[in-house]
Structures are given as structure tokens and as C-alpha cells.
Amino acid sequence: MLAKRIIPCLDVKDGRVVKGTHFVDLRDAGDPVELAKRYNMDGADELVFLDITATPERRETLSGLVRAVASELDIPFTVGGGIRTLEDVRLILRSGADKTSLMTAAVQHPERITEIAEVFGSQCVVVAIDARRVYEDRPDRNVVETPEGRCWFQVYTHGGSSPTGLDALGWASQAVELGAGELLVTSMDRDGTRRGFDNVLNRHISRRVNVPLVASGGAGEPGHFLEAFTEGLADAALAASVFHYGNYPVPVVKRYLRDRGVRVRL
């Protein structure tokens, strides 16, 4: 069995790391280069850098800042935000990233997933899915049972600001068929709440696909990471504020998981 991965996330706006709740009410969390250096030393398994305003502002990702962050790392590095074309991917990989994350471009142009996978390999293609619960029964959606009631999960784009009508479970399967090598699934309902991951969402997607799933949105304590792996069937868990503000550093989370039988790299 592969080791479970713990992944800090740098949500970057105007050159600074920020964090909010439900994708709004953003507050400063620090310098991305300094945080990258800390997480590299702390034993994070990977690092994710998301330029969260690149797509809404219709501009390219901050490649200069990506290079500065990459220079501090000797762990895998994923970059997303504003990536639309093969040339965008090439620039980001040349700037030091190991993988690129697509969200809005993947929804608007699904063929882009295949194009990038064919040129750079599926291992470079992470499809990010921002999803929110919709509590209604619809025969044309994958409706699931949750403790809060029956719902389906709607995909959002443009940094969580645009509902698409897409069913997240169906879209996850399609993205993998098109060539995605990994899925980064964020629960908009749980984002920034520190109430734990949406393990119903993650579990249903994980059971449908044969690529790694990274759970995101809601981590607030070490137990939430354990639940992401045991209940949500995630292969990796991503978090931001719980790490940025020093609540539970990466080594603390990893030791907690190890002591409970989860295989992690220490």
C-alpha cells in the first residue's frame, strides 16, 4: 500500500498567501516563498500553489513567483490557476513545477486534458474539482445519501464563483477518461470551516476512478486527516489554514496518523 500524502496548499493572491471560508473573506497568511521553505523542512509530501485570481482576472499564472517557490523545494510541486493552453503548461513546468492543475479550462475545453496528457504525460495533469452540495432529487444527477439529506454535487469554476450545472461525480469520471492522472477535490461547503473533509463526496468519487484523489476543504485537526483516509478513501489530504497558522504542523499530523496505523513518510 502506498503511503498517504499530506499536502499544504498555498492559495496566492497579489503575491501573498491568503485563506478564507467558503472561498470568500480572504485574510493574509504569509509569504509564499517562506511558507514553502517551512513546509519543505517540515516533511510535507508535496506542495500545491494555486493562483486563485488568475482565471477570474483572465491572466497568466505568476511564473516568476512559481520559480521562487520551486527553488526552495525538493518535493513534488503542483501549480494551478490561469492555466489554459499547452504553452501555459510548458511555462509552468519550466518554472519548476512537477504537475499542473486545471479547473476552469478543463470544464470549458475538456479536450485540453487529453492534449496536455499526450504531450507531457498524465502524471502532469491534475484536474481540480470545486464542488458544492445541492439538496434536491434529480433523475439526471448522481444523488447520494448524506446525514444531512439527499444531494448531488455541483461543479463550480472561476475560483468557485461560477456554478456550471455539472455533476461532480460524473465529471470526475469523464476527466479521468480524458487523461487526468490525479483529482484534487475541494468541498466548497467545508472550505475554511475546520469541520472536517466532505468524506461522502470524496468516497463516492474515489470509488468511481482509478487515479489518486486528493481531498481538500475543511481540515481543522489531525483526526480530520484520518477520516479523509479511512472514510473518504482519499490517497492524499490537502490543507491550508491548519498549517499556515501553526495549529497543527505537518509533523504533528503525520505522527498522529502513524500512531493510528496509517502509513505515512516521516
Explain what this protein looks like in three dimensions.
By secondary structure, the protein is α/β, with parallel strands linked by helices. The protein has a single domain, classed as Aldolase class I (TIM Barrel, Alpha-Beta Barrel). The protein has helices at 32-42, 63-70, 86-94, 104-108, 111-120, 168-178, 199-206, 222-230, 241-244, 250-259, and strands at residues 5-13, 16-21, 24-30, 47-51, 77-80, 99-102, 125-134, 152-157, 162-167, 182-187, 213-216, 236-239. The chain has an eight-stranded parallel beta barrel with strand order 1-4-5-6-7-10-11-12, surrounded by seven helices. Strand 8 (152-157) and strand 9 (162-167) form a beta hairpin. The longest helix has 11 residues, at 32-42. The relative contact order is 0.15. The model has no long low-confidence stretch (mean pLDDT 93).
